[in-house]
């Protein structure tokens, strides 16, 4: 998928992105309601694990909705770099909630597995209908989100789509567990599926929490992103060298701060044109990036630079 928007009118892209995340929130609300009912009917821990995953989906979708809405808001006097850090704070809270949910499901599953005579599941057929409907709704949402992401280049919508695609695994697992219980009476299989789903939830929560913590601590962008920015600077005509390349990621937005070394004898107009071209190339690859480029005369840096990046 291209990282660039296809629409020349940014309002059209925003409308499509908004439709995708609103659909995501709507589907998540429906799935949470259906699975709450199915859990009450079946008492299946695999359904409980799928319910916890759908609750996570709802929070992630709400965060995506906030991200799309905040993307249209310019920085203000009190938030010169925007409001994207709110996404990371929300993600950190989500990771804690997921870990607690995964732990509770795992404990309940272990207790049921160790029980010499576990209580049988109930109304497996109704639960299977709910899980089947959940799979179909999730597939429909993923297809729409991918179409929107291809047309607008939205990384938020693309990430949300990947998240929902991964959610098909616990849904299918719960469906299989209910079928096995109804067909063969193997109640403990439900607990085994629930343990696997709880493990997946925990791994996902730790990944979300780590990325959110790194962003809040202003950790540099991934090495491959830094290397791409550096390559653009090195290959930009008129740039004789660069130094002090600093990056960070807040929410879904990349921040780049870079000093480029130019011929000190050229005019300010020429220097600005070189910097503006480089900035445009960075934003083309990383849409929505906040890029600040400083100009330095190359001769001065050749004399005093000790970082090995002078001309």
From TrEMBL:
<comment type="similarity">
    <text>Belongs to the cation diffusion facilitator (CDF) transporter (TC 2.A.4) family.</text>
</comment>
<dbReference type="InterPro" id="IPR036837">
    <property type="entry name" value="Cation_efflux_CTD_sf"/>
</dbReference>
<feature type="transmembrane region" description="Helical">
    <location>
        <begin position="192"/>
        <end position="209"/>
    </location>
</feature>
<dbReference type="GO" id="GO:0015341">
    <property type="term" value="F:zinc efflux antiporter activity"/>
</dbReference>
<feature type="transmembrane region" description="Helical">
    <location>
        <begin position="125"/>
        <end position="144"/>
    </location>
</feature>
<dbReference type="GO" id="GO:0005886">
    <property type="term" value="C:plasma membrane"/>
</dbReference>
<keyword id="KW-0813">Transport</keyword>
<dbReference type="Pfam" id="PF01545">
    <property type="entry name" value="Cation_efflux"/>
</dbReference>
<keyword id="KW-0812">Transmembrane</keyword>
<dbReference type="Pfam" id="PF16916">
    <property type="entry name" value="ZT_dimer"/>
</dbReference>
<keyword id="KW-1133">Transmembrane helix</keyword>
<dbReference type="InterPro" id="IPR027470">
    <property type="entry name" value="Cation_efflux_CTD"/>
</dbReference>
<feature type="transmembrane region" description="Helical">
    <location>
        <begin position="91"/>
        <end position="113"/>
    </location>
</feature>
<feature type="domain" description="Cation efflux protein transmembrane">
    <location>
        <begin position="22"/>
        <end position="217"/>
    </location>
</feature>
<protein>
    <submittedName>
        <fullName>Ferrous-iron efflux pump FieF</fullName>
    </submittedName>
</protein>
<feature type="domain" description="Cation efflux protein cytoplasmic">
    <location>
        <begin position="222"/>
        <end position="297"/>
    </location>
</feature>
<dbReference type="InterPro" id="IPR050291">
    <property type="entry name" value="CDF_Transporter"/>
</dbReference>
<keyword id="KW-0472">Membrane</keyword>
<dbReference type="InterPro" id="IPR002524">
    <property type="entry name" value="Cation_efflux"/>
</dbReference>
<dbReference type="InterPro" id="IPR027469">
    <property type="entry name" value="Cation_efflux_TMD_sf"/>
</dbReference>
<feature type="transmembrane region" description="Helical">
    <location>
        <begin position="164"/>
        <end position="186"/>
    </location>
</feature>
<dbReference type="GO" id="GO:0015093">
    <property type="term" value="F:ferrous iron transmembrane transporter activity"/>
</dbReference>
<keyword id="KW-1003">Cell membrane</keyword>
<dbReference type="InterPro" id="IPR058533">
    <property type="entry name" value="Cation_efflux_TM"/>
</dbReference>
<feature type="transmembrane region" description="Helical">
    <location>
        <begin position="44"/>
        <end position="70"/>
    </location>
</feature>
<dbReference type="GO" id="GO:0015086">
    <property type="term" value="F:cadmium ion transmembrane transporter activity"/>
</dbReference>
<feature type="transmembrane region" description="Helical">
    <location>
        <begin position="16"/>
        <end position="38"/>
    </location>
</feature>
<dbReference type="GO" id="GO:0006882">
    <property type="term" value="P:intracellular zinc ion homeostasis"/>
</dbReference>
């Amino acid at each position: 998928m291209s990282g660039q928007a296809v629409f020349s009118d940014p309002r059209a892209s925003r409308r499509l992105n908004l439709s995708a995340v609103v659909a995501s929130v709507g589907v998540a609300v429906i799935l949470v309601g259906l699975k709450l009912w199915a859990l009450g009917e079946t008492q299946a821990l695999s359904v409980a694990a799928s319910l916890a995953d759908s609750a996570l989906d709802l929070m992630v979708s709400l965060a995506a909705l906030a991200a799309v809405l905040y993307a249209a808001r310019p920085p203000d006097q009190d938030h010169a770099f925007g409001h994207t850090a709110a996404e990371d704070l929300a993600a950190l809270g989500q990771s804690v909630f997921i870990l607690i949910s995964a732990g509770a499901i795992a404990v309940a599953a272990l207790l049921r597995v160790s029980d010499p005579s576990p209580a049988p599941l109930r109304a497996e057929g109704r639960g299977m209908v709910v899980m089947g409907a959940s799979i179909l709704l999730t597939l429909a949402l993923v297809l729409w989100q991918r179409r929107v992401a291809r047309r607008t280049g939205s990384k938020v919508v693309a990430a949300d789509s990947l998240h929902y695609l991964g959610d098909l695994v616990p849904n299918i697992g719960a469906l299989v567990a209910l079928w096995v219980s109804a067909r063969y009476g193997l109640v403990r299989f439900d607990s085994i599926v629930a343990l696997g789903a709880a493990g997946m939830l925990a791994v996902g929560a730790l990944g979300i929490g780590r990325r959110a913590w790194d962003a809040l601590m202003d950790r540099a962008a991934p090495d491959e992103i830094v290397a791409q920015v550096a390559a653009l600077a090195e290959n930009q005509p008129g740039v004789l060298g660069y130094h002090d390349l600093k990056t960070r990621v807040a929410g879904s937005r990349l921040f780049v701060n870079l000093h480029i070394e130019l011929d000190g004898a050229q005019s300010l107009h020429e220097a600005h044109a070189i910097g503006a071209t480089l900035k445009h190339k960075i934003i083309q690859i990383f849409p929505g990036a906040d890029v600040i480029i400083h100009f330095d005369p190359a001769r001065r840096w050749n004399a005093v630079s000790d970082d090995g990046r002078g001309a």
